[in-house]
Amino acid sequence: SLVPVSELLKHAEAGGYAVGAFNCNNMEIVQAIVAAAEAENAPVIMQASQGAIKYAGIDYIVALARLAAERTTIPVALHLDHGTSFEQVIQCVRAGFSSVMIDGSKLPLEDNIALTRRVLDVARAVGVSVEAELGKIGGTEDDISVSDRDALFTDPEEAARFVRETGVDALAVAIGTAHGQYKGKPELDFARLAKIRSLVKIPIVLHGSSGVPDEDVRKAIGLGVCKVNIDTNIREAFVAAARQVLADNPKEIDPRKMLGPAREAAIGLIREKIRVFGSSHKA
Ligand code: G3H
Ligand code: 13P
Ligand code: ZN
Ligand code: NA
C-alpha cells in the first residue's frame, strides 16, 4: 500500500540521502517511476500536481499509483504536489493520496501558517503526511534580480517560526531553484540553506530540481534536503524519445510505438536521478 512521504523522509534524513519525487500525468510515467525505482531498489515518491489531476482524473491517478505500489516490494508514496486550497487537499486525502503538499507560499505568513495548520489537523487524523512551502520558488520565466532574492527566498527565522507553529512534516524552501528549464546555471544560496537547516529540524524539500547540476543537488542533500522534486527533466526525456520515433517514422500511427520508447527514456532518466540522490539500494 502507499506509504506517507514522512516515513520515507525519516529514513532519508537518518541515512543522509534524498528520496526522488517524480511528477506523473499518465500511465506510462507512473510505470516508468516505479520501474526505475525497482531497478535501483529505491524508495520513491510519485507526485501529481493539480494540473495532472485535472488532466488524468483523480481516481485514475490513485488507481495507477495503488496498482503500482501493490505490484512491487519497494515503498511507494503518492503525494499531491503544490495543492493550493484546503478543498484540493481534502479531495486528495479522500481519494487515497498518502501525502499532500499545501502550498500557501503566495499568502502572507500568518495566513500560510493558518492554512497549513488547518490541513495538518485533518491529515494527522488519517495518517497522511504534509509538506508546506515558505518563500516563493516561482518559475524560470520570472526574472529575479539580486535585490529581489532577499524578498523571495525563504527567511531562516521565519522558517523556524513556521515549523514551530505548524508542526508540518517537511518544508519546501526557496533558495534559488525554479520550476522549468533554466536559462543559465541556477545559483543556489547554500549559506541560506545551511542557516535554515540549523534552525529547522525537519526534512527540507528542493523544488525545481530539473536543471540543477548534480554536484549542487548533492551539496543540498548534504545540507538537509531529503526530498528532491523532478518534473521537467522527465518531460524532456519522454517527449524527446516520442519526437524521435515520429521523426524517424512520419507515417507511424500506433501510439505504443511512440509511448513505449518514451517510457523507456523516462526510466533511464529517473534511474540516473535516483543514483544522484543516493537512494539506490535504500528500499
Ligand atoms: O511544480 C510544478 C510541477 O512541475 C507541475 O507542473 O502544474 O504543469 O503539472 P504542472
Ligand atoms: P522541475 O520541473 O524544475 O523539475 O520542478 C519540479 C517541481 O518542483 C515539482 O513540484
Ligand atoms: Zn514544485
Ligand atoms: Na527546474
Q: Work out the helicity level.
A: 40-55%
User: What is the CA–CA distance across the termini?
Assistant: 14 Å
How many beta strands in the DSSP annotation? Answer: 8
Low-confidence stretches: none
User: Order of helices and strands, N to C?
Assistant: HEHEHHEHEHEHHEHEHEHH
What is the overall shape? Answer: globular
CATH superfamily: Aldolase class I
CATH topology: TIM Barrel
Largest beta sheet: strand ordering:
1-2-3-4-5-6-7-8
Tell me the β content. Answer: 5-15%
Continuous helix count: 12
CATH-defined architecture: Alpha-Beta Barrel
- Biggest β-sheet strands, sense, barrel: 8 strands, parallel, barrel
Whole-number average pLDDT?
A: 97
Structure write-up:
This protein is of the alpha/beta class and 283 residues long. It has one domain: TIM Barrel (Alpha-Beta Barrel), CATH 3.20.20. The protein has twelve helices and eight strands. Strand 1, helix 2 and strand 2 form a beta-alpha-beta unit. Helix 6 packs parallel to helix 8. The chain is globular and about 55 Å long. Glyceraldehyde-3-phosphate (G3H) binds next to helix 3 and strand 3. The site of glyceraldehyde-3-phosphate has 8 residues, from helix 3 and strand 3. One of its GO terms (molecular function) is fructose-bisphosphate aldolase activity. Keywords: Lyase, Metal-binding, Zinc. This is Fructose-bisphosphate aldolase. It comes from Pelotomaculum schinkii. Its EC number is 4.1.2.13.
